[in-house]
Amino acid sequence: MALVQRLHEDERAHPESYHRPGPGPHAGEPDADGFSPTLLTAEALPSAAPSLAAGRAGRDGGAAGTRGDAGAPAAAEVAAREIEICERELKRHEAALTRLEAEAAAMLAELAGILAAPAGVGGEAAAAAAAQRAARLREGVASLEVLASAMRAEMEGATDIDGRSPSVWDTYVKNKPWEIRDGSNAKVACDHYHRYKEDVALMKSLGVKNYRFSISWSRLVPSGRKGGAVNQKGVDFYNALINELLKNGIAPAATLYHWDLPQANQDAYEGFMSRQLVDDFQYFAEVAYAKFGDRVKTWTT
């Protein structure tokens, strides 16, 4: 509900960014909830590409969006507002990290008190309870680690090179560019495909200990189908990323499916509308685990 309220507030404050003419059906017309069908923006994905792209552009000495398509609209006011939203999200995450640090400090203080208590105070039962509590506190403090997470479509880019086939997201933004406020797409995104070493170095500098990334089905098995050829260049990329993470003390965690079904599966049998997908997905999962499971110990989908 908080996200919906924030979207309503932004739409009321900046109606020109939502209700505008567009080539799609009902584009620019509000729906029953007061939203325009053109709404799919950084507000819905506040920690995704815009913040990283803007940061990289500044680091490279260019303007935000310089890594995107040359034909993408460059609306300065929209970019500024999206950066502002991302900055608010960053402050929210910083506040959450501060709370975690406070919790860790409280745990350590309690642990120190337990360890400093005179032996035998309260009897054997109390001593046993204190030892158990101390063990749980140690586990709790050890588990407080920084995690970074990303989606392939927001990060990788390189959607049409090195053997990768189109996904449903690629087709969607190509056929309905008006559904994305600034008309951008994932061809470059954060350019993680080419700049993963820089990204890993940034994560290390932030103290990140775990990185959950998603594996592009279209990059690993371009046909999307059971028995399909495995794209070695895709394997090489994920191997390089995983090895770079481990080299820098960051544990890799892989997501198999993150809303980027190969377009081939959608065309063949309407994707998740058909049980044919089960065998194809199983094959993709088995390929991924066979190639990366020796180093990736956490898997989600």
Automatic annotation (TrEMBL):
Compositional bias segments (type: Basic and acidic residues): 1-19
E.C. no: 3.2.1.21
Top EC class, one word: hydrolase
Top-rank taxon, per record: Eukaryota
UniProt keyword annotation of Coiled coil present: yes
GO annotation, biological process: carbohydrate metabolic process
Family: Belongs to the glycosyl hydrolase 1 family.
UniProt-recorded name of the protein: Beta-glucosidase, putative
Native organism: Monoraphidium neglectum
